[in-house]
Amino acid sequence: GGVCQALRDWGISAPVLSHPLLADWLERGVAGAALWETLRALLASRSRALGRLEQALPLLSQAWGEARLVEERLDGSLADALEAAADTVPCSISSYFSWVVAQVMRLCLSLQYRQGVLDLGVEAGCFFWYLDFSLALQIRNEDGARKNKVEQALASRSPQRASQLLQFSTEDLVVRAHSQLARGIFRAHVLLGRLGLLSQCNPRLMRRLFALRFRPFADLLHPTALQLEDFEACLTAQEDNVETRRLLLANSVACFQNARQLLEQARKAPEDSSRSLTQDEVKSLLRVCVASSLALTRLKGIFEDAKALGEHKVIFSHNYHPLFPVCELLPSKPK
User: Fold this and answer.
1) How many CB atoms lie within 10 A of CB 102?
2) What's the chain's average pLDDT?
3) First to last CA, the chain
4) Are 299 and 249 in contact (CB under 8 A)?
5) φ, ψ for residue 157 (rounded to 5)?
6) 246: closest CA among 309, 315, 296, 183?
7) Helices within 168-305 (DSSP H only)
8) What are the pLDDT digits (tens) for 214-240?
9) Rounded to whole angstroms, how far apart are CA atoms 276 and 169?
10) Section 290-306 average pLDDT
């Protein structure tokens, strides 16, 4: 029951859910147990949450494998059946698989949010790099589900419903703002590391921290867990010169500005029940956006001047938000 409702909410049409192959999987597979463990993990107290999240991920990985097998078998028979039914709205075969992936990413994100940042140096750049990857994948999955539901609404001659589906909820806007913030913080860390304004982490310690933080993701089938080498490759993907530094700075500022625009929309959006999100949360994130944009804009005026750069320092702090730090440019020596 719970899984069927979740799949309907994701945009999977009734003919797909009633197909014998999928119905058999819903009865015999691990989806029910995986969904139940996911809910238990998400609702658990902070002291128990991490353990339960780690227990739920293997079940979702198993559900992922089953989903792939089911969809491979559905690909021919279901497509033919849907095409033959004149009153049926076609549903993408990948919709069911993407729902399972969305549950995996939901847990991965919850795990990352609850872990938080161990320190605000180089390790924080790695944390926000992985968080940006996770959020981008989740957003892409949800956009695909939204498109699927819009197509069904239009085929059912419900343009008003389709129009409603195209409007982002407060939760949608804030999740997109989180993605922009994570990307902006990561890019700022890369730039500041190249400018010598961030202390470097010992490579052996960095490897241990990475392994400890992302250990629960190691056995995921999809998305495949990222490795420390992937992070290091991002750091060295471009040559370190004045032009690439300018580009990093501009892109980081743009991310904070994009996040600010999304949060302004969220602040003005009608209240919805999709998430217990207070305006205090939105205001805190807005302060992070504004303060970080100002600090990076000030950095733009001095980062090519070695003497001026040496008279300043950059710090990250959680003055405004418990997860997303604010970037501050300060004099090296108090006046």
Assistant:
1) 18
2) 78
3) 66
4) yes
5) 60, 45
6) 296
7) 170-194, 203-213, 228-235, 242-268, 279-300
8) 887 877 766 788 898 998 888 888 888
9) 12
10) 86
